[in-house]
Design goal:
The structure holds two protein chains of two kinds.
Chain A (H helix, E strand, L loop, with lengths): L3 H14 L21 H10 L4 E2 H8 L3 H13 L3 E8 L1 H15 L15 E8 L1 H24 L6 E3 L6 E3 L3 H4 L17 E3 L2 H4 L6 H22 L1 H10 L10 H16 L2 H17 L5 H10 L4 H12 L7 H11 L1 H49 L1 H11 L9 H17 L4 H14 L2 H9 L1
Helix pairs in contact in A: 1-2, 1-6, 1-10, 5-11, 5-12, 6-9, 11-12, 14-15, 14-16, 16-18, 19-20
Chain B lengths: L1 E12 L8 H13 L3 E2 L3 E12 L3 E2 L6 E12 L6 E10 L2 E6 L2 E6 L7 E4 L5 E4 L5 E2 L4 E11 L4 E6 L6 E2 L3 H4 L1
Parallel strand pairs in B: 8-13
Antiparallel strand pairs in B: 1-5, 2-3, 3-5, 4-5, 6-7, 6-12, 7-8, 9-10, 10-11, 12-13, 12-14
Classes of the chains: A mainly alpha, B mainly beta.
């Protein structure tokens, strides 16, 4: 996709059609000083060397007053040569653009970001619309040629009639209503004046003498004009035909262009600085301006949120197609900028998982310990049973909250000792103890469990 | 250009026609109503060629009239820009001449008449070539090209040209030479 032939086309068209365009208000006096013909050509030429450009920057570069530039650009917008975009943005939003312009300029960030103010400003951007320019120029040429040819051959033109009295105009299609029964002329519907055929403007200039003579002269003049046009616009037409089969350079709209340019520089640099700048800009720039890509703002919300899994998957996907340019990929490029945060989240998540791991470890440790203690308890119990039953009973009753049967005593011993166990493994939080107990219940006999719930 | 198309129309029939030949009455009334009319969309209805079907009649409250939706095939004629037509001249004046191709009125203004034809006034106004071999006057037949149409809801008016190859008078024996 080469811009060069198109730029040449723009330059030729500028010189052919916009050479003597003055963009000044009608009320201004016409002095030599304010004669700004040629500005249009200068602006168009400058635009061929840029892609999207902020109008203030362009004005600064061209040393033009921004008002004057804006008037010229508005004219070109009407002429469909230029697309413009206006948006209210903060300094951050402007940074996206700055980053993008830096990307197209030399692939490096420059220090322009600092000079923007914090307030919201309406910035206007403009860009040449090459595809449309091609069409516009072609259409313009076609119309010129057709007009001349039609007048030359007097063909296929609907004759117009005009009433000299009231100035009302009719076309030949109204003829049926205009014929009068009295004479062979057409008559005005409103004032009944005799209509005269309105001959073309070119002929009108020299309609003084006889019809035939004038007609012949007009023909010659038209032929001459057509010929002149053909030869003077030949370079332009050649360029048009050269450009015909080339794909026209597309910059997309401003937003897409910025994204693409930023993505390109990120792909080129691959470092985190580009990431950072675009990341920081995402937060503010898009909030203030209505953007066609709604999806991305949605993604941002997830960014500080709790749902880690979805984002992790996305950022993993985004890792590989980092350098792809088309706009539909850029969405993923957006995710990509969040990569770091995604990683951070992963870490925090890792902590969560490791906590769980710790918990499991502690649980098994506790289980093991408990089994050992159980064995010990069993031994001790036997000893107790052997030595003194009543003593053991009393001791357990005092310690226990609920009523216990004798049968419980061995469980009781277990539990008392069990409660000492958790601190060794875990941080000693309540719910963890509970979990342990439940797990124990499943691991050990059922009576154990029931007793705990009663207590 | 002619088209053979199917159109639909709601026909109101007076109760006195209800009887054996209701259908014939309906068709004859349809022909009377429709043939020769002009709609901006379809052009002039030239002739009804057949009835597709007659729907169920609906009795109108209060009047006793019955409305039948009738689908019918018909030939329509609609002039288009760029079309070549043969037409009969109906009126000649200084501004040009009017011609008719069937129901369509066409106006040919004088600057769309070849430059070598001059207007001759008189009781039989006409356009004649300088050598007098070709003459356009009332009743002569011309071949012309339509360069503009004006289509209203109920009327079509065209403007034409004879300033092109193979256009001009066709009936006049002098034109053959």
């Amino acid at each position: 996709m080469s811009v060069e032939p198109f730029n040449r086309l723009v330059k030729l068209a500028a010189r052919a059609f916009y050479d003597d365009i003055t963009t000044k208000g009608e009320n201004q006096p016409k002095t030599g000083r304010s004669d700004n013909r040629g500005i249009a050509v200068v602006v168009l030429d400058a635009l061929t060397r840029r892609q999207w450009v902020r109008e203030e920057d362009l004005a600064k570069d061209l040393k033009l007053h921004s008002k004057q530039l804006r008037r010229t650009l508005r004219f070109f917008e009407e002429e469909k040569l230029v697309t413009r975009d206006h948006r209210r943005e903060t300094a951050k939003g402007a940074k996206i653009y700055s980053a993008a312009i830096a990307a197209t300029a030399d692939g490096q960030q420059n220090g322009r970001e600092g000079e923007e103010k914090i307030k919201l400003h309406t910035h206007s951007y403009c860009c040449l619309d090459y595809a449309q320019i091609y069409d516009v120029v072609r259409y313009r040429l076609h119309r010129m040629k057709k007009k001349l040819k039609d007048e030359l051959e007097n063909k296929n033109t609907v004759q117009e009639y005009i009433c000299p009295n009231c100035g009302k105009r009719y076309t030949a299609l109204d003829a049926l209503r205009l014929v009068s029964p009295e004479d062979e002329y057409f008559h005005c519907e409103s004032c009944n004046g005799e209509l005269v055929a309105e001959s073309d403007k070119l002929a009108a200039q020299e309609m003084g003498d006889g019809d035939d003579n004038a007609r012949r002269r007009r023909r010659e003049k038209l032929k001459d004009m057509l010929q002149k046009m053909e030869e003077q616009l030949k370079p332009l037409m050649d360029q048009l035909s050269r450009v015909k089969d080339l794909p026209s350079p597309e910059f997309g709209n401003l937003h897409a262009w910025e994204l693409r340019a930023n993505a390109a520089v990120r792909a080129a640099n691959g470092d985190s600085s580009a990431n950072d700048s675009s990341k920081s800009s995402q937060g503010l720039g898009f909030g203030g301006t209505p953007m066609p890509f709604v999806g991305e703002t949605k993604v941002e919300v997830a960014f500080s949120g709790i749902e880690e899994k979805g984002e992790d998957i996305k950022s993993e996907n985004a890792n590989s197609p980092m350098k792809v340019l088309p706009p539909w990929m850029i969405k993923q490029g957006m995710n990509l900028t969040k990569e770091q945060r995604g990683e951070v989240k992963q870490e925090s998540k890792m902590e969560g998982t490791s906590a769980a791991d710790e918990y499991v470890k502690a649980y098994y440790a506790a289980l093991l310990q408990r089994q050992r203690e159980q064995e010990e308890a069993a031994k001790r119990e036997q000893e107790l049973l052997n030595t003194n039953i009543s003593n053991g009973l009393n001791g357990t009753f005092e310690r226990q909250v609920g009523l216990k049967s004798k049968r419980d005593e061995n469980d009781e011993d277990e539990n008392v000792e069990w409660e000492e166990a958790p601190p060794a493994g875990n941080t000693g939080e309540n719910y963890k103890v509970d979990l342990n107990v439940q797990a124990d219940a499943s691991g050990d006999d059922d009576e154990d469990d029931i007793d705990w719930e009663e207590g | 250009m002619f088209f053979h198309i199917v159109l639909e129309r709601n026909m109101q029939l007076h109760p006195r026609h209800f009887g054996r030949d209701l259908r014939e009455k309906l068709v004859s009334k349809l022909m009377k109503d429709v043939e020769g009319t002009c709609s901006g969309r379809h052009g002039f209805v030239v002739a009804i060629t057949g009835i597709e079907n007659v729907g169920k009649g609906l009795i109108r409250d209060g009047t006793g009239f019955v409305t039948f939706p009738v689908k019918y095939q018909c030939v329509v004629f609609r002039p288009f820009k760029g079309e070549i037509l043969e037409a009969v001249v109906t009126m000649v004046n200084k501004m040009g001449f009017f011609a008719e191709a069937g129901p369509v009125q066409i106006f040919v203004s004088n600057h769309l008449i070849p430059d070598d034809m001059e207007f001759q006034s008189g009781d039989m106004p006409n356009y004649t070539t300088s050598d007098g071999s070709v003459k356009i006057q009332k009743e002569s037949e011309v071949r012309l090209k339509i360069i503009g149409t004006r289509v209203d809801a109920t009327e079509i008016f065209c403007i034409g040209t004879i300033k092109d190859d193979f256009l001009g008078v066709i009936s006049d024996p002098g034109a053959a030479s």
